[in-house]
Specification:
Layout (H helix, E strand, L loop, with lengths): L2 H8 L4 H7 L3 H7 L12 H8 L3 H10 L14 H34 L6 H33 L9 H5 L1 H24 L11 H35 L2
Length: 238
């Protein structure tokens, strides 16, 4: 399916819809820091204008981007399966990465905090992000995701009265995603999009590479929740 056909079927496609319909778009959006998660409601043209990018060029790159050997289509998965995937794939990644990154950031701040002043606010922003994500994931795993699974047992019932009760916690989770996105943007800006200085030691370079990986995983994580999982239940109660 190309971008033109996507637009023909549903009007001007949003960035979120392009991320769903064109798996190769994720790599393009990541390369140019185009927000397809919390800002996924925007059109491609609007998103490009905000970043000072040429939408025609970005559209062309999306069309040409390889989808990968194995293309996951999470929009076709059941909600219960999708919640399990998020927990096992993304929540597990976050929990493993946080202590590793905290240790790396402490180390580089000790060695390079004076010659690279941005490192201290990067560390502080990441510590705040880590705390928010830890609490956020607990709320999803203990409250929201079990309720979603209940609504899909034995068959999906998005119009069940319990679904209306999900609207408030979904809105709260989306607000927390925005807060996490703001912190990630701070880290990108402070790190010059994870570009270490020329004098950076191997540990310094590894730290920025791990931060980039954390950023990319978090964007995919939020995309699955905001644009696919949560959207199902929001649309059911429009």
């Amino acid at each position: 399916m190309d971008i033109q056909s996507t637009a023909a079927e549903g009007g001007v496609p949003t960035v979120a819809q392009l991320a769903i319909d064109h798996p190769g778009a994720l790599s393009v959006f990541t390369r140019y820091n185009i927000d397809y998660c919390c800002g996924g409601h925007r059109s491609l043209e609007e998103a490009c204008m905000r970043m000072g990018l040429d939408p025609v060029k970005i559209q062309s790159e999306i069309q040409e981007a390889p989808a990968g050997v194995q293309v996951l289509r999470p929009e076709t998965w059941g909600s219960a399966f999708l919640t399990d995937f998020i927990v096992q794939q993304h929540h597990a990644f976050v929990r493993k990465a946080i202590p590793e990154l905290e240790a790396l950031l402490e180390r580089v701040c000790e060695r390079h905090g004076q010659d690279t002043p941005a490192l201290l606010p990067i560390r502080n922003a990441f510590m705040e992000l880590a705390e928010e994500l830890t609490l956020h994931m607990e709320k999803e795993e203990l409250i929201l995701f079990p309720t979603i699974k209940r609504l899909e047992n034995p068959e999906p019932d998005y119009h069940h009265p319990l679904g209306r009760m999900l609207q408030a916690p979904i809105a709260a989770m989306e607000d927390e995603h925005k807060a996490a996105g703001n912190l990630i943007r701070q880290i990108r800006l402070l790190s010059d999009n994870y570009t270490p200085p020329e004098f950076a030691c191997p540990t310094f370079r590894i730290t920025f590479q791990r931060l980039r990986e954390f950023d990319e995983d978090l964007m995919r994580h939020i995309h699955l929740e905001n644009n696919i999982l949560f959207e199902r239940f929001k649309q059911a109660w429009v």
